[in-house]
Amino acid sequence: VNLQKVIQMIQDEKSCMEAAQQLQAVTNAIVKAKQIYVQDHIEHCIQSAQGEDSNANSRKIKELKEITKYL
Prior knowledge:
Elements lengths: L2 H9 L4 H34 L4 H14 L4
């Protein structure tokens, strides 16, 4: 179920229980997508930091610290 369909359910005054369940499914999908996105970014930062100078590594570490708050 996508968010657009849930919005339509609400506008069509479908069952509140069904709409709430579908909203939860959308929320869970967004949370999972965010986790995957952030984890992929972290892996990319770690891989790209190998062999870089200390200034570049310091920037990568700062970026990693910042992005982990979204996990």
